[in-house]
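User: Some background: our group keeps a shared notebook of sequences we're curious about, and every so often someone picks one and asks for a predicted structure to add to the entry. Today it's my turn. The entry only has the sequence so far, pasted here. Could you supply the structure so I can complete it?
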Amino acid sequence: MSGKDVQADPTALPHPSGPDIPQPAEPAQAQPWLEPVTMGDNGHKGAFGEQFVQTLANAANLNVSQSRDRLGIDWELTYPGRGGTRRHPKILAQVKCWNRPEDAGDSWRYPLRVHNFNLLSGRDWYEPRFLFLVVVPGDESTWVQAGHDGLLLRYAAYWACFHDSAPLEGRPKDSTFTVPVPKANLLTVQTLHGLFGPEFRDKLEAS
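Assistant: Of course. Here's the predicted structure to add to the notebook entry:
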């Protein structure tokens, strides 16, 4: 090695030589543009259950209109009448969405508020009223499966009619009353049509 001074390479990076040399800052974490959406709460379940029923009713080619739910009704379904039949019969539906089903043999056992039960029971109504119970998985991320070959909604909806039962008098309206919803009463396009039959209207005194 010669005694000449070594020339510094002008292209070389500077070498930090002391504790006061500032270090490069950590890259800032990008803030999410949207906040996480709350999933599976009562509002989410209620909206999903109502749309589940509306999808079935639309597939059944029924006229569907939403109620303001002041009288325990979520959907009004009207059958398109034809000549020689009763014109435009209507049924009313209260929809509940349930993600914690209690399996009790042949029927679901649903804890319905007494107030809601009293708005479905008895005979003093002009139109037949039904409870539509939409049973969904506990994991809300599995309620819907979308693919190129179809849209799958889980699990299913069932119907129950309480016109043969008397309203519950003298009980707190916010208490619950467990009602049976038969598993045989699967809600389909065909069974929706069947709910407009005269056997349900014959249960009513005011029709």
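Suggested note for the entry: Residues 76 and 92 are 5 Å apart (CA to CA). The mean pLDDT is 86.
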